[in-house]
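Chapter review: from sequence to fold.
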Amino acid sequence: MESELNRIRKQASSKLENQKLYGQTLIAIEEMTTLQSSQGSTELVGALLYILDQVFPHLPQSVIRSKFTDVMSILEPVFEEHKEEQPIVRSIIGCLEVLLKNQDGATWSMPMIKKAYQQLLILSANASPKARKRAQDAVREILSHPPPPTVVHPAAEMTAEFILRVLQETTKSDQHASQQILALLQTIVPYWPPHRFSILCQALLQLPKFNNVFLTKAAFDVFEALFDEQETDMDEDKFFGLLGAIVELKPAAVDDRLLPPWLLIVSKAYSTFAKMNANRCANEIAPIFCLIFNDFQQASRCHRQIANCLSTLIDYCLSDDFVEDASAGNEQNGLIEKIIPALESGLGVHFQAAWIHVMVVQQSLFRRLNHMAAPLMNGCLALLGELRLTSSEAYKEQLDKTLGAAIATMGPEFFLNVLPLNLEAQGGVGRAFLLPLLKSYTTNTNLGYFVKVLMPLGDRLAEKGTACAERELEMQAKIYETLVNQIWKLVPGFCDLPVDLRTAFDNTVAERFSSLLYTQPELRPTVAQALQLLIEKNQALEKSSASDQHLIKTYGLTKQEANANLKYMSQFAVNYLAVFFNVYSQIAPAFRGFMADVIKAYLTITQPEDINATFKRVLGMLSQALETKEEEHNDPNLPPPMSQTMLDLAVIMIPFLDAESCELLYNGTLQSLLGKEDQPVLQKKGYKVLYHLMNNAHGKQVALAHMDDLQRHLLEATGSCSISAKKDRVKTLLALVRLLPATDLHFIPSILSEVVLASKDSNEKTRGFAFELLVEMGRKMREGGIVKTSRLEGMDASAPDAAANISEYFTMVTAGLAATTAHMISASIGALSRIFFEFKDDLPLELSSQLLQSINILAASNNREIVKGAVGYVKVAVVVLDQGIIQPQLPEIVQSLLKCQHQHRAHFKVKIRHLFERLIRRFGYDTVASLMPEEDRKMIVNIQKRRLRAKRRKGAAGQQEDGSDDEDTRAVAKKGAFQDAYEEVLYGSDSEIEGDDDDDENSDNEQMKTVKAAVQAQTKKNKKRQALANAFIREDNDEDGGPLDFLDRSALGRISSSKPTQRKKKITNTFAQEDDGRLIINEPTAKGGDDEDNEGGEAQEDYYMQHMTNPDGFTRDKRGKIKFKKAKDAKGMDDMEVDDGEPVKKQKKLGKKYEKIGKEFRSKKAGGDVKRKGQADPYAYMPLNKVIKKKGRRDQNLTFTGRVKK
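The token string follows.
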């Protein structure tokens, strides 16, 4: 550090100003130079003040208060001397901010503090832009930290007087200064004295009278911030007068600069007035609503802001009493008299440009009126319906949203009274387009309307559809079928918390729904969802924490009514469960999830005795199905056998069963299902039943009562477990281990080998549950207990018991390292690494060291599977173990890794490089490098080089690198793309050099090569597959070209991977020509041929020429092997002689040849030209014979690139 400081000191005499400043500043600090003795050096004063500005916020409050007088006596003369230097002024402002913010309440009465604060206020209004902004921030920061115990800062009154005085003095003379002080005012409005709000509003109302757009906008911004505050000193009458004054300041509709802030002021001001007196605000809202609404007629760019303002007025200013009075039919109500007529007129031609925004306001009014929207909004709804019949795409989406808001609030009954569907009427306008809207927006309405009106309508339409189908009118029948389906799709909306459930849902409706479940497969999801909503919505309402008054206002129901609805529906539960079970058995497993959901919903409202009685019937059907041999099939679209269906239903019912039913299911599962090796699906479902039983309260009791029997059956079923049931068996063992008492821990070593092997299963979920089970068994052993060794298979009855602890558990797992197969050894190493990561803090240091030593030996094995697990264990150990444990074994670790590197270079190179990088980060480069043999030193040097390069890059990018072990552990503990911290440690690289370039031959990333090769192979495979999928047959357009003969060997040449395009035939002259261009037409002879060609009869075909010119022909190479020609190979035959009558192919025009000028001077060994003996110097000589333009030639043969056309 001293050497660096010396370099800076030497720069004090530099000729460069930027270097000289740093050197002088450092010397001034070291010599304790004060601002008084700075000898008027502006640069030195600025540097010292900047340092003070940075240091002051970190000083103790006591120091700041004690040194306030001394500091101010220094800053004042410095400010007077350098007040034109803006960097110095900003630093002084920062110092004043810290000094004033840390003063207590009593000191604010001192003249020096008041003077300093007044100086800040003056700077916040008159300084340059940057200094003014810094001063305004300082004032806001000071006012926002009042000295305790005061709530309002002592300087707030002084600030208010200063701002009001400046506004009064500068409004006429200097409006720019007024704008600056308004910018300060906008930031400190939250700290304005409450008793000064009236005076401030009066001052602000005077500003728009000066017709300065910027000043008016600034005043509006202050008003907006003002109305955000909760406390004011204005009473109701004064506030209402202020609202009237603000309304009178309304800008023109086309003024897109002033209108948006004015609209924000109005919306916030009236919302604040509504909190003072809601009814008076509601009665006064109609005039301002109409005043703003009329601006929709103007071609303004503020329509969106107008709609937002009107929506805010509707949401916050229409009180409940006001709405109820309008719903009662009071014609004097402003809602009926002005607001609703204005919205109806908003759909006229004069408002067409703003229809989208008018509809937004209508949606707000629909939602505010809620169920009282009918009949108040009937006229508006009728206009919307007419507009929907001729709607344009420009506003169709917003129109549908408005109609949807009407459906959700008025209800389908009142909505369809205004806009009927007319699906049967001959003369009326059909509105089938409303059915999708009704489906999306119907909720919390009358179910009786659907039962009495829409359900009969659907029946009549279905009859008409049947009649059309009988008359073979397929189009009309399809239309009627679609309409019927759309009508029944409305059922979930009507069943979503209906207000008349107990009166509308009777036995007839219940039977109709059951019939649809049986007879209409396409409607099953819809009907099941409707029946499910009847239960779940009432349950949610019953559990709601809202008051009954709020619930009645929102939903029209109370908690007691929701409870009564559930009790009413419980009388249908038993019959519906039977229906659901039957329908469930008729649906394929992949498509019956919705039935399982509705069954669970109805089980929650069914009496326990009914549930258990139903379950016993399910068990009876299950026993009967197991006794009879059912034929299994592999078709996923067909229902499964009855036994599988009953087991699925049993799993659904387990959470609702009592202890007796759970025991029946438990006994049946153990005796009938676990041993069915020939029926893996049933075996899998049996394990699933046991798992769900042991996660249920009553099922746990049964399992604990039969613990020994359960353990025995599970151990006996180990060998007969099918592959598909492996995952569920591991889950069952996991649930059982969690229930194991401390005296039955001998079950853990009994299943340990099976669980270890399951951790290497091909199924990812099975591996995950196996690792989770390994950890759970370790926790059980850590809790303590007794391992009865005599109860283990193959052990003597006199074997002593062992105490359960974590060391004993690791000893059990370590026994797998002595297995005879590499697969078991690798699985044991993986299991050890997982439980070692979990219980590393509970293991004795000696055991951790011994484990690492044992695994380290296996890392040098010749078997890749074993090495893979051992390298993973070493990586985990290097990350989580302390350095003191790894340090003694570091040489052995390095040697084992190097041996593994030499034996399995291509497979574990990347992992071993990451391990060496980890070792370098923990123990240092010198320590690791000293353990490397000379022949392997090159790799470690390259790793270090890449690490340093990566650090330099990160440092250049501003990212600091911390290589501590604690940081590494915390980074590893984060869950990133992996499932847990263990996977992050085992599979995550966390490498500093990842993605860095490597110039060394031995540092090639083999893993990336493998990935690239795999990607290229997959790309080739995809291209080949695509080529086979996009194969085309190319046909010749010969006169005698018939269908392609696939048995012909030459057919292979006709297959193309790209779609062939038919080329237009060029019109060629088939007659011979003389030299002067005259055609030669030979007269046909009596035999039909030419005289010369047909003298000896018909000319025989030239098969050799056909063979040579055919694009699908073939040739033989030197070895006699046949080589098929491609179409392009036949182009070379065009030069052969052809008959006069054959079309002559046009020869391709050859490109022009160029000759380089000066090529004789070109160097053969380097770039540029050279001098030749006996020749001229290589300058830009140009041969005249190439430049001279001959008479009659129009083109210049010499090019600008030094080339001459031959």
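Two observations follow directly from the output. The two ends are 74 Å apart (CA to CA). The first strand starts at residue 786 and ends at 787.
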